[in-house]
Design the sequence.
């Protein structure tokens, strides 16, 4: 019978292992820790939470709440172990981290067909070898994938340059919360169409007040291991401002070609917002990578004209990351187009966060198990939360593909109903997602 080989015993790899064991398969899980540590992990434990101990909200109408509920219905080990190790945290699911890891290890270890092998994997089998053996592999090596394996993954991305290493990410905003009486649509020098970008106009006074606020804002302390060189194309705005108060105006806040319809002129400076999804519910701040603390990001960015009420789907952050530009290299079942018996899961596939990584591990595990058994696993549809996340990884992401955490903006936009509050609208979206998932489960069970 076919074996499943999983690289990485983190959130995604552990979840994938559980799904494959449940399907009756033999699983070999390769984890390089503690023999070779990453820059962030502290132990050799499976499913180690590298930073916060929270798996975020349990509120049923929130995106993380929806995702966890769907995962639980799909028999997620990570959610089960988290609930078993939960500590009081209001409406969030926070855990006692060593108890959580122990729960995961014990659940996997209870299967005779499970073997953990302490080993760093640096190469992947060829499609021909896998065809012969019938084995399947799941790569779940996380944001701190070892260099040897990163090189092997690079080789799997046919045209190269598909493997991104980057240190900083820009915030993603909720389009609905932006005042479009002020923020205007235009592309530089495009006089024909409406323009693809939304633009936040600043006058001289607003620009310098904003620069001063960024300089004064509290920044996230970087760990020693994160003291890496920034890519010049991906500099945090604070680093740019260190080079001079004008740098932003000649960089990401360049106003050239952006005619403000309210004045008929170019503003003194402008922040550009780029669509993140086809539903046009999310936009990212172009070139606005930042290491300001999250409450400071909210305070400082809400100073920008038209963004006074803005809500954040994701804050900017700075840390090392390794991920593939998955929509180019993965098939819809999370397997590599060039090697259909190798699957990708977790943060390396283009999601961000503990639960999101586990969710992708769950789906890759199910899909890989099905392939090993000569079957097909029907992926959840894109209008439930876990399906939306998977859809983003295999088919989503306009322009620069950036790792995504779960948020309601990934779900199809619901038409606005007159008089409906924002909370009611989100509740409606969540209900639609729940109904879709229930129908999917009906089909899938
Ligand atoms: C510094 C830092 C802080 C973070 N803080 C948070 C947070 O507070 N909240 C949050 O939700 N997310 C956080 N994240 C993101 C979080 O780490 C990931 O979302 C999540 O752990 C990813 O799960 P994963 O299974 O994809 O990777 P991991 O959980 O990292 O698991 C990957 C595993 O693969 C192993 N591995 C790597 N290369 C090899 C190899 N060649 N051979 C064998 N094994 C290998 C690693 O040792 C690791 O155990 C943080 C990430 C970093 C880097």
Sequence:
């Amino acid at each position: 019978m076919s074996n499943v080989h999983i690289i990485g015993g983190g959130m995604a790899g552990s979840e994938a292992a559980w799904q494959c064991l449940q399907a009756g398969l033999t699983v070999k899980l390769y984890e390089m820790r503690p023999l070779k540590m990453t820059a962030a992990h502290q132990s050799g434990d499976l499913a180690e939470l590298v930073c916060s101990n929270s798996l975020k909200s349990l509120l049923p109408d929130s995106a993380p709440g929806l995702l966890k509920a769907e995962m639980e219905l799909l028999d997620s080990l990570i959610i089960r172990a988290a609930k078993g190790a939960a500590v009081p945290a209001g409406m969030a699911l926070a855990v006692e981290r060593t108890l959580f890891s122990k729960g995961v290890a014990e659940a996997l270890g209870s299967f005779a067909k499970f073997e953990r092998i302490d080993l760093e994997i640096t190469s992947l089998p060829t499609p021909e070898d896998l065809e012969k053996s019938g084995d399947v592999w799941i790569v779940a090596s996380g944001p701190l994938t070892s260099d040897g394996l990163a090189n092997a993954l690079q080789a799997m991305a046919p045209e190269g340059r598909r493997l991104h290493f980057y240190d900083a990410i820009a915030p993603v905003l909720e389009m609905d919360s932006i005042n479009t009486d002020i923020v205007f649509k235009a592309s530089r020098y495009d006089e024909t169409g409406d323009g693809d970008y939304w633009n936040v106009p600043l006058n001289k006074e607003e620009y310098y007040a904003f620069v001063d606020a960024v300089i004064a804002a509290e920044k996230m302390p970087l760990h020693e291991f994160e003291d890496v060189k920034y890519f010049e194309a991906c500099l945090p705005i604070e680093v740019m401002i260190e080079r001079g108060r004008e740098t932003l105006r000649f960089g990401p806040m360049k106003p050239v070609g952006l005619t403000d319809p309210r004045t008929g002129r170019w503003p003194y400076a402008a922040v550009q917002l780029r669509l993140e999804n086809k539903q046009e519910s999310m936009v990212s701040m172009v070139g606005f990578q930042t290491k300001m603390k999250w409450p400071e990001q909210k305070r400082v960015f809400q100073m920008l004209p038209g963004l006074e009420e803005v809500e954040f789907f994701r804050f900017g952050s700075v840390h090392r990351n390794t991920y593939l530009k998955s929509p180019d290299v993965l098939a819809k079942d999370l397997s590599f187009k060039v090697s259909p018996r190798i699957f990708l899961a977790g943060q390396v596939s283009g999601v961000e966060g503990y639960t999101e990584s586990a969710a992708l591990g769950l789906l890759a595990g199910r899909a890989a198990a099905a392939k090993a058994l000569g079957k097909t696993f029907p992926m959840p549809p894109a209008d439930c939360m876990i399906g939306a996340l998977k859809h983003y990884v295999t088919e989503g992401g306009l322009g620069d593909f950036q790792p995504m955490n779960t948020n309601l903006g990934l779900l199809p936009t619901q038409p606005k109903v007159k008089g409906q509050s924002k909370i009611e609208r989100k509740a409606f979206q969540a209900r639609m997602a729940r109904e879709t998932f229930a129908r999917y489960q009906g089909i899938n069970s």
